[in-house]
């Protein structure tokens, strides 16, 4: 089971460009639609939980998927598989610099993969919207959520949106039919995770100075306090790591994280690698990676346990229905800004997105086939 889950997530880790919203689309396409590892309802609630919890949202969803499929071993396999390609590439960036990013072939492929991310997000919006916005009330919640996120483009916007949607759903949809969350999170695992997180949070808050231990402590604190995903981690890191990492390295790592597949939190892998003494790059990079991801993953275990324990209450079912609709609105807002402006720059590119979206909905190709077509298209564009 470990190898199966690891392999599936490793393939996605090699091809998941486009940031957290796109990753949610990739996961849904592969594990809900194609493999049937989870239901649409379970998946939507993991996505909602990832918006409430601090930490890397898409990695938390993948972690929850892995746990659902294979317990804690499956969760670890999912995390390692999805994160490993990005960590390796960030270490390569740290070693060789970003000289190859000036090559036309690289620029062409990167532009094509940005277009592919738009297609995948559109597919996720279509599928999740069809499931969770069936009534006029849930459609209205999705529209209002989209407008809220576009008018409130701040780091805590997604957290505030989920809270507001939950309250509105409890009051407005509380008597409607809802689905009980059928997770199987062990109470023992959840309380162990909560205890470990609490101890590490207190201990790391007391560590100061320089060296690998101080770097790991600051990254753990950052991972415990970041709401809103990978892009929000930059301002917090710039404050937390001011005495440990130069602004140049921070911005270079941030740019590199956007150019590679997988989670943006592997910015920490780059910072660990460039901060390491000679001969210790890999150890520092892995420690930094674990430090920033661990708090969000532990909290996801805790959140799932309490979520499934409360989901039979009708008011909470209404809240869940509203949160699911709000997540659709959140995805639409993320697509409109910043993804579309930074990915689609011409009518021809918009046409490519439309054609690819129709192909994806009609033929339902595997993700690797979609990636292969876009990579080939990017190469052709760059060379000719």
TrEMBL record:
Keywords: Cell membrane, Membrane, Transmembrane, Transmembrane helix. GO terms for molecular function: chromate transmembrane transporter activity. It is a multi-pass membrane protein. The chain crosses the membrane at residues 72-96, 103-128, 140-173, 185-207, 250-271, 283-307, 319-340, 346-362, 367-383. InterPro entries: Chr_Tranpt_l_chain, Chromate_transpt. It is found in: Cell membrane. The keyword Transit peptide does not apply. GO terms for cellular component: plasma membrane. The keyword Membrane applies. Belongs to the chromate ion transporter (CHR) (TC 2.A.51) family. This is Chromate transporter, chromate ion transporter (CHR) family. It comes from Marinomonas fungiae.
């Amino acid at each position: 089971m470990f190898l199966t889950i690891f392999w599936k997530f490793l393939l996605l880790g090699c091809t998941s460009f486009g940031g957290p919203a796109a990753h949610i689309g990739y996961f849904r396409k592969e594990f809900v639609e194609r493999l049937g590892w989870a239901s649409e309802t379970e998946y939507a609630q993991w996505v909602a939980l990832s918006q409430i919890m601090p930490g890397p949202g898409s990695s938390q969803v993948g972690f929850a998927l892995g746990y659902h499929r294979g317990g804690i071993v499956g969760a670890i396999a999912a995390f390692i598989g999805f994160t490993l390609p990005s960590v390796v590439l960030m270490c390569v960036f740290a070693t060789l610099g970003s000289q190859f990013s000036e090559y036309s072939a690289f620029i062409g492929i990167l532009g094509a993969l940005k277009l592919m991310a738009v297609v995948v997000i559109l597919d996720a919006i279509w599928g999740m919207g069809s499931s969770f916005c069936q009534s006029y009330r849930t459609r209205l919640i999705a529209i209002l959520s989209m407008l809220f996120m576009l008018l409130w483009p701040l780091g805590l916007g997604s957290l505030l949106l989920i809270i507001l949607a939950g309250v509105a759903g409890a009051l407005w949809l509380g008597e409607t039919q809802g689905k009980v969350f059928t997770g199987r999170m062990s109470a023992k695992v959840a309380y162990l995770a909560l205890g470990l997180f609490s101890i590490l949070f207190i201990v790391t808050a007391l560590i100061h100075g320089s060296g690998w231990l101080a770097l790991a402590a600051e990254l753990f604190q950052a991972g415990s306090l970041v709401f809103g995903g990978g892009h929000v981690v930059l301002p917090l890191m710039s404050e937390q790591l001011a005495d440990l990492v130069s602004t140049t390295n921070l911005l270079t790592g941030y740019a590199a994280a956007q150019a590679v597949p997988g989670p943006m939190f592997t910015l920490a892998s780059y910072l660990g690698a460039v901060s390491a003494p000679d001969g210790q790059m890999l150890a520092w990079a892995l420690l930094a990676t674990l430090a920033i991801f661990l708090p969000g993953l532990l909290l996801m275990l805790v959140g799932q346990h309490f979520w499934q324990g409360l989901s039979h209450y009708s008011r909470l079912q209404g809240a869940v229905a509203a949160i699911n609709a709000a997540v659709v609105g959140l995805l639409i807002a993320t697509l409109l800004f910043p993804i579309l402006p930074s990915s689609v720059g011409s009518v021809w590119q918009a046409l490519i997105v439309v054609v690819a979206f129709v192909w994806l909905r009609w033929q339902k190709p595997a993700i690797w086939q979609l990636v292969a077509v876009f990579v080939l298209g990017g190469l052709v564009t760059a060379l000719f």
